[in-house]
Amino acid sequence: MAPSNSLPTSQRAAHFMPSHPPSTKISQVAPVPTIPKSGIYTLVRVLSSSINPVDYKIASLPQPLPRIMIGSAPITPGIDFVGRAWQTNHPDLKSGDLCWGKDGIAKAPEGYLSLLDQGRKLEELGCVGVAGMTALQTLLMGDLPYNRSGGTETGGRVFINGGSGGTGIFGIQIAKHGLRCETVITSCSGPNTELVRSLGADEVIDYRSTNVVDALKEWSRNNGPLDLIVDNVGNDPNLYWQAHHYLKNDGGKFVAVGAGVSLSAVTALTKMMLWPRLLGGGKRNFHLFMLTSTKKEQWDQFGRWMTEGKLKTVIEDGNVFDLANIGEAFEKLQTGRTRGKIAIKVAEDGH
């Protein structure tokens, strides 16, 4: 049953309060957006969403930076979604259709509804957005055989720093089963080793008991250099400064995703980006990944991999929160010890 085309006058929404660290409140009378007169747009009744570290990191910046980067107040966290189209002028959607995506794109379900027939939940689609596209797009930046050949060749060696978080879990699966890399190395704490191996990691470094940089040096001495490093953590600048010991010189890339919002973290990141090699700077290509893009073909590919069983969303028990408890969800996310994704249940699917 399609929803009525008439819009409610208000909606329930989570908002960040202007505090440090940011806190959340639930508004029962948030304004409902309208579809602009030009362009292709879909207004979605969201059923499930997800939160990501970027949500609280941007909101934690001093004003007016959050408003410059996100838009006018109030700031609403969470741009991933799965829901039903309420109003749309999208050629592939009609009112009532299930759709998924992130802010800026609403994907028609196409064959992805078969995921639900397989017993998988709507929350899996609602958690892909930022983490899934970040994982895919950072890996596509690498000089890997799959990327060079347009998907016809296999191989390549990748290190993913932070393998048990939302982005890392997608990254391991994409690298191994999507891009068909020869070797996927990742880091995580010891209790998460079994999980990341089950997703496709060939080698696992327990960062609590082993120095990650030393472990990569040793591995490279025995097996050769890596093609790509994706750093989802950003807590150890030495991982980049020592990269010439384990990242290949010709075409090797270091892609930084995780970054702190403290002055020291910003200073370290600026140094890695701008300090010339001749003056003692890094000896390998450094790239800062800032924002995920919304490319239709990449969403299509991600959906195909999901229906083929190559990718799955990891949402553990205790990591699904009602919208009213989003503050608790952020507290858990900010510990940095969450395995997989945190899902936010927004509404029931009454069709």
UniProtKB/TrEMBL annotation:
It holds the Pfam family ADH_zinc_N_2. The lineage of its organism: Eukaryota, Fungi, Dikarya, Ascomycota, Pezizomycotina. SMART domains: PKS_ER (SM00829). It comes from the Eukaryota. SUPFAM superfamilies: GroES-like, NAD(P)-binding Rossmann-fold domains. This is Enoyl reductase (ER) domain-containing protein. Residues 19-344 form the Enoyl reductase (ER) domain. PANTHER family: ZINC-TYPE ALCOHOL DEHYDROGENASE-LIKE PROTEIN C16A3.02C. It comes from Lithohypha guttulata.
